[in-house]
Amino acid sequence: MEILYSSTRCGEKKVTASQAILQGLAEDGGLFVPSQIPVFDFDINEKKDMTYRETAYEVMKLLLTDFTEEELKYCIDSAYDEKFDTEEIAPLVYADGAYYLELFHGATIAFKDMALSILPYLMTTAAKKNNLKEKIVILTATSGDTGKAALAGFADVEGTGIVVFYPKNGVSAIQEKQMVTQKGKNVKVIGIRGNFDDAQTGVKKMFADEELKKELAENGYVFSSANSINIGRLVPQIVYYVYAYLNLLKNGKLAEGEKMNVVVPTGNFGNILAAYYAKNMGLPIGKLLCASNENKVLFDFFEDGVYDRNRDFILTSSPSMDILISSNLERLIYKIAGCDAKATAEFMALLSKDGKYEITQDMRSEMADFAGGYSSEKDTFAKIKDLYEKTGYVIDTHTAVAASVYDSYVKETGDKTPSVIASTASPYKFARSVMTAIDVKYDSMDDFALIDELCKISKVEVPKAIEEIRNAPVLHDTVCDKDEMKAMVKEFLNI
Ligand SMILES: *Cc1c(COP(=O)(O)O)cnc(C)c1O
Description:
By secondary structure, this protein is α/β, with parallel strands linked by helices. It is 45% helix and 17% strand. Strands 4-5-15-10-11-14 form a 6-stranded mixed β-sheet, sandwiched between helices. A 5-stranded parallel β-sheet has the order 9-6-7-8-16, sandwiched between helices. It binds pyridoxal-5'-phosphate. Pyridoxal-5'-phosphate (PLP) binds next to helix 11. Pyridoxal-5'-phosphate binds next to helix 11.
């Protein structure tokens, strides 16, 4: 069955999966959504033994229907190889009542690698299929992890260039060092004086800027996106939920047909939306627990159906979740509005005008699969310390937000369904917060001394991604105001 894609804001124009990946964002500012969410054409119970790559093929072929088997397998095999430090790609670790799905074994030690190691292959393959002549310029706004993962994926990829904008004072020291040391002829990293929402809004504006697009075209360029607004990010993220389920089945932790709950530390709503798509495709998932940090705009939304970004932006120790405008929520809104593009466009217009909208009662009843929760900084740190002291397992701050929300959820509901917590970053990426959560004495040490201490207490080898930046020279030091982003892109492209 062929799946086509249309915008969440206008259902009329339909494009193929490869065209949607190339374009990133629809022309009307909406996000591409599949005409329908396909269901698995295989029996999960008979596929327990699939490897990560096999699972990826079985899932992705259902959504990226205009890619041939050969093309898709080429992309999958090129992406999920030795760049990952474990053959399992996404291992599951049990600790103190929950399964941690470790999504940080890729090149940049955050879950963004799961999709961004394949996106460049999907994109260059899509460019070939569609006879694209222009050079693809990837514009990326990052709250810290997407930036590096996209840079690593696209660096020196023929026919592409990439510009990354990050909030200058809104990422961890390690995250920043990872980005500003990035090598590659086609890469540019820029800090902006503003927060992630400013960066994301600036990027979205450039996508919608017709004049700029024309100028680009005249110079042989076309924009695309590596953010989770790109369907090419979302589809690969469905895979690991299926893989985790198969793993639990295989190891007798779940009986055939038994449900698992999924807990996701959420920012832009991309990761949890992938889990929701997995459920819609037929994966036995019970609750989808959406975990927020103190920027709890999503928690409030699940509580009362009002999305309201009019509030202070809080810088937390889980910076990749410091977001007040969760882009991918638009895809959920579209779905629970009964795939009504006009209604979705109206909600998004309200969001942009008033920073706020309220969904209908009917729509709220469509969200019963979700439960929202949030964790304060204090509870997040306490969870890291407690889990470490009980089990010796060290988790990062983002994962700890989810684990803390999970604990409260179980306490409140008594729901004992086996649960998978998406572990979205290596603790090494947020070593300072993690180590001081365990013991304040670490606060006086420098970042790399902390890395060595973390290695001692966790008994987990220091990842290559960290060793690489220890002595790497800074190659990018541009900082700009949020209204200078367009000029920066033009300067990089020499137009
Ligand atoms: C990006 C990120 C998140 C949030 O994921 P979304 O898909 O934006 O909801 C959580 N944790 C880490 C470590 C991340 O990098």
